[in-house]
Automatic annotation (TrEMBL):
InterPro entries: ESAT-6-like_sf, T7SS_ESAT-6-like. This is WXG100 family type VII secretion target. It holds the Pfam family WXG100.
Length: 105
């Protein structure tokens, strides 16, 4: 049971990292696709366009960093769960001489 939950948490962490990577890739492609439009903006409009682009890049980094932090947290919670669950099993084994039931859990 512990390995199943730990494995699920590891899978979830990987999915979160994959989502972060996908979002970053899509946004970077969008920014690259928008770049040719910059030449069409003159004066203040061009500066505004560049400012928005910089802000989007900054916000994208925050989103990706946050998702990666979530993934790290999920992965660490899986490790912690595994350790705590093992400790609980050991405590139960101390109180129950016949550990076949505990082993089945």
């Amino acid at each position: 049971m512990t390995q199943a939950i730990t494995g699920q948490l590891e899978t979830t962490a990987g999915q979160v990292e994959g989502t972060a990577s996908e979002i970053a890739g899509n946004m970077n492609r969008l920014l690259i696709d928008l770049q040719p439009l910059l030449k069409d903006f003159q004066g203040p409009a061009g500066k505004t366009f560049q400012g928005v682009q910089i802000d989007v890049e900054r916000q994208l980094k925050i989103i990706v960093d946050s998702l990666n932090e979530v993934a790290r947290g999920v992965r660490e919670s899986g490790k912690e769960f595994d350790v705590e669950d093992s400790k609980a099993v050991e405590e139960l084994k101390k109180t129950m001489p016949d550990s076949t039931i505990i082993d089945a859990l």
